[in-house]
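**User:** My hope is that you can spare some time for a protein that puzzles me. As I understand it, each token names a local backbone shape. I would be glad if you read both lines and explained how they fit together. The protein I mean follows directly.
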Amino acid sequence: MKKAHLILILFSLILCLQACSPSLPSGILDEDKMTDVLVDFHLAQGMAEAQGENPDITRYKYIQAVFKKHRITEAEFDSSMIYYSGRAEQFTFIYNNVVNRVQAQAERMGLEAAAANRDRFATLTNEGDTANIWLGKDFACVLPNRVGCVYSFQMKADTTFRPGDSFIWRFKTQFVGRSMNNEAIALLNFYYDKDTVAAVTDLLRNSLKNEMKHTPGKGLDTLNLRSITGFIYLPMVNNADPPKPLLVSEIKLVRMHKEVKKEELKIKSDSLAADSLDLDSLPFAPNQRLTPQQMRENQPRERKINVVKENPNPIHPQRGIPQRIRRNKK
């Protein structure tokens, strides 16, 4: 009886825990299922990019194959993306697992190596004349609602920034599903001294890879950069065909120092000061070892100059007074 009583108590506790745990809404994929779908989703994009056909058509075919493989609809995937994107901790946990699995499978399939060979910024670090200075997370999800419609960042300049630096903001984008209103806006602002601002904008549609470049022109290349801000905005459309969620991944901000040209210094003998050393007058080359005789000859010698001062008050004979004539005595 006691044993049966304990089993009944444990069974009741399990039922209570299951009842207390929050259940997913209808049509929402669980975390494991969502992770599996996102892994295949990103691999399908990489495989479509490697094909030489029309990337948009090929990408759509591969993504539809992913939905068919996991036996889900595009609407279920869209709803799940919106659900998890509104829960930061769950979405971060899912996407970290996705990134790790995608990288491992891409390396086995050879996609990662091929992409790295085509991308000259793939192996950049945060040091050097050309560096990846991005400090934020390398993925985001922009949603067509009032809360998640904007992904933004702000970066302050530090001592590694120099006047004349150029920048490239690089990232990949993919709309989750097809819509006539799949369109986002990207903006970069560069704030310089003297209240000077430079802006770069781009319209994001169906392009997988995006690059926004900024090279300061004449006048800006001598000013110090104070900060950089940017955002990706997905406008809301109130109609029957709203835009789909936008995935942003592999975000990089590349900074490139301005190339400094070294000018040859020309020293003209006629522009030297009077007390400077005349190199043309040296009897030996600068790197030549001197002999003891040359060292004695080149030692500074003291020069004595006899100065004859003129008498400021000369004595002249007075007029009317005859001068004395010295006569030789015989």
Summary: The two ends are 175 Å apart (CA to CA). Confidence is low (pLDDT under 50) at residues 17-21, 264-269, 271-282.
